[in-house]
Each structure stands twice: as C-alpha cells, then as structure tokens.
Specification:
By secondary structure, this protein is mainly α. It contains twelve helices and three strands, in the order ααβββαααααααααα.
C-alpha cells in the first residue's frame, strides 16, 4: 500500500503505478544520498557524532545509558525496528532483544564492523530497503500535522501553503521526504542552536513564493541551504559542522536536478 502522501499529492494524470514508481525512485535517491549506494554504509557511525547511523535513511540509534535529555537529535532506529516487526520481518535474535545500541562508542562500533552480529544487521538492512523507504514516507505523512501544531498560529497557513506548493511540484515528494528524514521536522526544542532550528518547519517558514513547479523546488532548496548554513554558523565549535556543509549542499542540489529530469 502506498503512503498517504504519495496518494494525496499525486497529479491527476498519474496512475497508482506511476506513483509507485516515483516512490521507488525516492527510495533509491535517499539511499544514494546517505550511502552513495554502498551496502557497507548501511551500518555507519560518523566521526564526531554520539550515535550509530543505520539503514538507507541513516536512522539514529543511541548507545545504552544516554538519557533522553542528552539526545540532541531525534532517535529513529528503534521505531524502524517496530515497523519492521509489524511487517513480519524476522530480526536477528540479538537485535530483537536490544533495547539500545549495544556499541557504547564509535571506536567499539568500528572495531566490530565485520563481526557476525554486524554482518547480520547489515544483511537485514539490505533485504528490507523497500520497507525502510515506506517507513520514511510514513514519517512524512505525520510531519505536517506535527509542524502545524508546533508553529505559531499566525504562521500556520503560510506553512501549509508552502508545503502544498512543494508537494504538487515535480519530485516534490522526494524533496520533502528526503529533507524530513535528513534534518527532521524542526519541531523539537532540542534540535536548536541558539534557539534556531533547521528542520522542515523552518525551511517552509523561510519560503515566500506562490508558484508551483521548478520554481517551488528551487526556492525550497535555497531556503534549506539558508537554514543549514545558519545551523553551521550557530553550531558548537567542537562539532566542526562546517565539514559537512558542502555535502549537504550537494544533496540539496539533487532536489532541483530531479525536478528538471
């Protein structure tokens, strides 16, 4: 079954088969963005981060002992595991009983990268890519209500209009799905530097146009660039986030490139 977003936002001329093809394309693009299409990248722990990044969406998994208050970014891998179980995926035994990431830090994770349980994890993630794509799409289904609830009342209609504008544009489903997976909804107070966020809510708030089509996707990419540039400027110096900015900008450029195809 297709996620609600893909059904509600598809142009009238497209069949369900067309939209299913577009969803498959979105999944392929997200996997390329996060992993450059490399299976080995399905199990990653980036330098300078406090968590493992797993699957095609690099879903976050924190080690045991990290309190909720100390988790700066939204954890999503446990929710993915629930989603997979609900779709009858048989998880490796050690994973089914794991309440938190069993590797306490990046060094132990990298040391274990070819160990049997890591290989089982990677194999499961490779086999369940279509379900992971569905999981990402369903996160987008829930994003707009969350954003509207969190936004100031006087900005809510503006956010709705900008969301619909992007959604109705070529590969708007890709831009929205990828960004919300990539940088979140923007509603969590913990995902702020100096009180300023960088998620989907902030990107939509920063947009001002009314055209659909390529112009909407181009403005979405520009607004996202502005929010991510601001994030880097506000980030703690010890995180050295500027090292990621070029890669983030290349990712945003794919939104426009795909809209032009």
């Amino acid at each position: 079954m297709l996620p609600v977003f893909f059904v509600l936002c598809m142009p009238p001329a497209l069949s369900l088969e067309d939209v299913a093809g577009q969803q498959a394309r979105v999944a392929q693009l997200v996997f390329h963005n996060e992993c450059a299409g490399r299976i080995a990248c399905l199990t990653s722990w980036n330098k300078g981060e406090e968590f493992a990044s797993l699957g095609i969406g690099h879903f976050i998994w924190y080690p045991a002992g990290v309190a909720e208050v100390d988790k700066p970014f939204r954890e999503s891998f446990p929710q993915l595991l629930v989603f997979l179980r609900n779709h009858d995926v048989a998880l490796p035994g050690w994973l089914a009983s794991a309440g938190a990431c069993p590797w306490p830090d990046r060094d132990s994770f990298v040391h274990d990268i070819e160990a049997p349980r890591m290989q089982l994890l990677r194999s499961m993630l490779e086999k369940t890519m279509p379900l992971q794509a569905a999981f990402i799409s369903r996160r987008l289904d829930a994003a707009l209500p969350e954003i509207i609830k969190a936004a100031p009342e006087h900005r809510r209609e503006h956010i709705r209009q900008q969301y619909r504008r992007v959604a109705a544009s070529p590969m708007g489903s890709y831009a929205l799905t990828d960004y919300v997976n990539f940088k979140g909804e923007g509603v969590s107070e913990k995902e702020r530097y100096h009180g300023q966020g960088w998620g989907l809510m902030q990107v939509l708030e920063a947009m001002h146009g009314d055209e659909q089509g390529l112009a909407a996707i181009e403005e979405f990419a520009r607004a996202a660039d502005t929010m991510l540039t601001r994030r880097v400027a506000n980030s703690p110096p010890e995180r050295h986030e500027v090292r990621w900015l070029d890669g983030w900008r290349k990712r945003l450029a794919t939104y426009v490139a795909e809209a032009r195809r």
